[in-house]
């Protein structure tokens, strides 16, 4: 009879995800996780012109991304604010615009559970001389989480800091990436202000911080109208407002959902 431990090890090996040997020098879209670096298909992209009400944020993100892609000084970026206002899709749209413009830049998406693997990703990308954007989507850290300090160290230029040809782009619903109450609580009997400063300092490491606020009625209708024109749909403002009222929110996401509903009812493919 074979060694039970050997049989258990073999079974675990079969259950393990296969190693992925993505070549960071080839392709423009990647994901990184416990299976390593893997190429990804280009996601569905929203044309930049369809982002209504965020003209300033879009322009600043585009300019920073173009500088980075061209090898010029550029910032790490934090996009923060209301849910559904297009933060994540704008990051992808800007990168898609760079790719369409023949810039040799790649985007690597990393999800929050894999944040401790960020130094490993940096080591992989350091060996490839092209430009990279590492995208951390919907990041939210607990104030006492060791990852706050780890991420600060990576942005501060320590031993494991990101390579010079890599920039971080982070989206979050929190302006400071940590819960608001962590900035206000007196959890440290010695100096609570030092605790708050330490936690809030993480957001300060991002040279470009762009706020996305919940849209008002006019902005919401403008987004809906843009989508309708882009897809050849009739636009009914009253129906758009009723749709938003039924969901208790006005946002870019709700506007797109209304567009999907309108197109489906009209028999139009998007």
UniProtKB/TrEMBL annotation:
Residues 73-207 form the AAA+ ATPase domain. Coiled coil: none annotated. Pfam families: DUF815. This is DUF815 domain-containing protein. It comes from Sandarakinorhabdus fusca.
């Amino acid at each position: 009879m074979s060694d039970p431990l050997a049989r258990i090890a073999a079974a675990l090996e079969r259950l393990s995800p296969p190693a992925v040997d993505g070549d960071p020098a080839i392709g423009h879209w990647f994901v990184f996780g416990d299976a390593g670096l893997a190429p990804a298909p280009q996601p569905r992209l929203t044309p930049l012109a369809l982002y209504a009400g965020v003209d300033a944020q879009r322009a600043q993100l585009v300019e920073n991304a173009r500088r980075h892609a061209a090898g010029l000084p550029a910032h790490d970026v934090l996009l923060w604010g209301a849910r559904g206002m297009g933060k994540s899709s704008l990051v992808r749209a800007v990168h898609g615009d760079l790719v369409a413009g023949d810039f040799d830049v790649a985007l690597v998406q990393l999800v929050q559970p894999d944040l401790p693997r960020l130094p490993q990703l940096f080591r992989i990308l350091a060996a490839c001389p092209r430009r990279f954007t590492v995208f951390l989507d919907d990041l939210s850290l607990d104030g006492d989480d060791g990852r706050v300090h780890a991420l600060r160290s990576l942005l501060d230029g320590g031993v494991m800091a990101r390579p010079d040809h890599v920039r971080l782009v982070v989206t979050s619903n929190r302006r400071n990436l940590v819960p608001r109450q962590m900035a206000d609580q007196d959890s440290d009997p010695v100096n609570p202000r030092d605790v708050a400063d330490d936690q809030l300092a993480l957001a300060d490491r991002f040279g470009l911080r762009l706020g996305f606020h919940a849209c008002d009625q006019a902005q919401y209708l403008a987004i809906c109208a843009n989508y309708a024109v882009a897809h050849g749909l009739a636009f009914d403002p009253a129906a758009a407002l009723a749709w938003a009222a039924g969901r208790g929110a006005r946002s870019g996401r709700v506007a797109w959902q209304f567009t999907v509903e309108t197109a489906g009812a009209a028999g139009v493919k998007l």
